[in-house]
């Protein structure tokens, strides 16, 4: 059942990206409907996959990196469907990220990071659901906002209406992701004190989470108080894109710490 759901979610995401790209590059507007249908199918399939693993493990299904990647991919499809109500072609730029996360989880992660396993003592806490869920949702919303900023830069000489939509949706997405990131960091600090006796230890993940928080705090400060918008804020959003990926993927694999998987 797990393999069926796993392979099914990848298939739907691949079809979704293909349909949106056909719609964009061949100007076949009817393929948007197929793209939306397969995105919804992928969303539901990944949701069922997480529920199935949760039942099998008998705990909240966000205890390893595989499940975190699947949840993040699910979050992308959910946000994508919301963004699509404002920008019909949003799937062209958002669907590849959801597919990348799903494919990375399914085909690139070592089996040791995918298999079902009981919770280690440090994770046996009610803070697991709160902290991990909020952090992953913050990553998803921040990355979506950053991708829209990158799209703004690519289409900078395009129609004003399209640019305004991208600018406003990028701002809103980051505006939602930042408080989620803040709550996630605070809940993680409380959990760290409960598990390890210290609210903050400058673990590589904690350090990069703080750097990420600073980058987007600067973005929102300049946007709200200095009236930065358009091109200038898109530059900051693009910088934030790379910082979030370093925080989420780079630190987990390249650094040694309490949050690291030590793959490399």
What does this structure look like?
By secondary structure, the chain is mainly α. 75% of the residues lie in helices and 0% in strands. It has helices spanning 2-25, 31-57, 65-83, 91-108, 127-154, 160-196, 204-225, 231-254. It starts with a helix and ends in a 10-residue tail after the last helix. The relative contact order is 0.10. The mean pLDDT is 85.
- Structural class based on helices, strands and sheet pairing: mainly alpha
Q: What is the count of β-strands?
A: 0
Radius of gyration, whole Å? 19 Å
Regions with little confidence, pLDDT below 50 for 5+ residues: none
Mean pLDDT: 85
Distance between the termini: 31 Å
Q: Count the helices. How many? A: 8
Instruction: Tell me the series of helices and strands, N- to C-terminal.
Output: HHHHHHHH
Count of all domains: 2
State the major sheet: none
Can you tell me the overall shape? flat
- Bin the helical content: over 70%
Q: Which strand-content bin applies to the residues?
A: under 5%
Summarize it.
The protein is mainly α and 264 residues long.
């Amino acid at each position: 059942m797990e393999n069926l759901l796993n392979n099914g979610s990848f298939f739907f995401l691949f079809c979704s990206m293909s349909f949106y790209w056909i719609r964009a590059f061949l100007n076949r507007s009817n393929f948007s409907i197929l793209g939306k249908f397969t995105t919804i199918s992928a969303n539901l399939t990944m949701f069922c996959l997480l529920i199935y693993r949760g039942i099998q493990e008998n705990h909240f299904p966000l205890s390893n990196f595989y499940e975190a990647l699947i949840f993040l991919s699910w979050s992308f499809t959910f946000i994508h469907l919301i963004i699509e109500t404002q920008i019909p072609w949003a799937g062209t730029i958002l669907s590849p990220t959801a597919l990348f996360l799903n494919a990375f989880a399914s085909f690139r992660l070592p089996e040791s990071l995918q298999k079902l396993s009981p919770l280690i003592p440090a994770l046996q806490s009610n803070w697991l659901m709160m902290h991990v869920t909020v952090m992953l949702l913050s990553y998803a919303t921040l990355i979506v906002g950053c991708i829209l900023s990158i799209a703004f830069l690519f289409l900078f000489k395009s129609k004003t209406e399209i640019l305004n939509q991208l600018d406003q949706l990028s701002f809103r997405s980051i505006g939602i992701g930042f408080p989620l990131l803040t709550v996630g960091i605070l809940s993680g600090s409380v959990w760290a004190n409960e598990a390890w006796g210290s609210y903050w230890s400058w673990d590589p993940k904690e350090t990069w989470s703080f750097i990420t928080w600073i980058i987007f705090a600067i973005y929102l400060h300049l946007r709200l108080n200095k009236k930065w918008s358009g091109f200038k804020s898109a530059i900051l959003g693009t910088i934030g894109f790379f910082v979030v990926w370093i925080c989420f993927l780079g630190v987990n694999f390249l650094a040694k710490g309490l949050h690291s998987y030590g793959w490399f």
